[in-house]
Amino acid sequence: MSRETPSGDELLAMLAALASPHRLRIVAALAEGRSYVSELARRLRMNRPLLYMHLQKLEAAELVVGTLETAPDGSSVKWFDLAPFAVTLTPQAIAAAVPTLTVPGQKDEDKQ
């Protein structure tokens, strides 16, 4: 998260990204330190295409960061780290985030 108090859209993306047991397991594994896909797949006993799908969702929500690194032999490996995040989920935090939600098709003057 880019801010301590996320916008409605950021909060929604984060909650949606964390609303999966697979993605929670990935976050827990990355809490132990950075890893690359093949290593994570072995540790989590998950196939790589499924793992990539979940990592993309976490990356889109800015909960993980992927970095492509090239080895001296020219091969590339994408490493993943947890992004620092902390959100206190309270009724007040939700109430503050709701006015900033983007609703598809809604015009700015309709938000009020």
Automatic annotation (TrEMBL):
Q: Which organism is it from?
A: Micromonospora sonchi
Per its UniProt record, what SUPFAM superfamilies does this chain match? Winged helix' DNA-binding domain (SSF46785)
- Lineage, top ranks: Bacteria, Bacillati, Actinomycetota, Actinomycetes, Micromonosporales
Instruction: Show the InterPro entries listed in the entry.
Output: ArsR-like_HTH (IPR011991), HTH_ArsR_DNA-bd_dom (IPR001845), HTH_MetalResp_TranReg (IPR051081), WH-like_DNA-bd_sf (IPR036388), WH_DNA-bd_sf (IPR036390)
Alphabetized UniProt keyword annotations: DNA-binding, Transcription, Transcription regulation
Gene3D superfamilies from the xrefs? Winged helix-like DNA-binding domain superfamily/Winged helix DNA-binding domain (1.10.10.10)
One example GO MF annotation: DNA-binding transcription factor activity
Residue ranges of domain HTH arsR-type in the record: 13-90
Against PANTHER family, the record matches this protein to:
TRANSCRIPTIONAL REGULATOR, ARSR FAMILY, TRANSCRIPTIONAL REPRESSOR SDPR
Protein name according to UniProt: Transcriptional regulator
Highest rank taxon of the organism: Bacteria
